[in-house]
Design a protein that fits this description.
Number of strands: 6
Structural class: alpha+beta
Number of domains: 1
Strand content: 25-35%
Number of helices: 2
CATH architecture: 2-Layer Sandwich
CATH superfamily: Kinase associated domain 1, KA1
Order of helices and strands: EEHEEEEH
CATH class: Alpha Beta
């Protein structure tokens, strides 16, 4: 299956509380997706612009409907993976933000995604 197929799913969150995903079913990991009104290309550029304004955020993979970023924490250099999946039919951006190591994240992944939401709101 290629990433351009609409049935693409983001990896599920682990049971540990260091991940949020718009495709998670449980309250601890679930978070609302972003909606967009512009074309997918314009929405993707607006999202990338918002992410560029954040520190220690690096784009590592991109295709038509998918973005993958790595975010490195300042102090301990922990790397988190942030993935975005654009659903053109529903005009929705699904995402997952997860720590690669450790168990808890003190809410860092959820806070980061709400920050992205605030930065991108009204621009998508």
């Amino acid at each position: 299956m290629t990433r351009n197929e609409p049935s693409k799913q983001l990896p599920p969150c682990p049971s540990s509380p260091n991940c949020v995903s718009t495709q998670a079913q449980d309250e601890g990991h679930s978070i609302a997706p972003f909606r967009y009104r512009k074309s997918r290309a314009e929405a993707k550029e607006a999202l990338k612009e918002a992410l560029r304004s954040m520190s220690r955020m690096k784009l590592v993979e991109e295709d038509e409907t998918y973005l993958h970023y790595e975010s490195t924490s300042l102090l301990f250099r922990f790397v988190d993976d942030i993935e975005f999946l654009f659903d053109d039919e529903a005009k929705t951006i699904h995402f997952r933000s997860a720590s690669r190591t450790g168990y808890g994240d003190l809410g860092v992944n959820r806070k980061r995604m709400e920050q992205v939401r605030a930065l991108a709101e009204g621009k998508l």
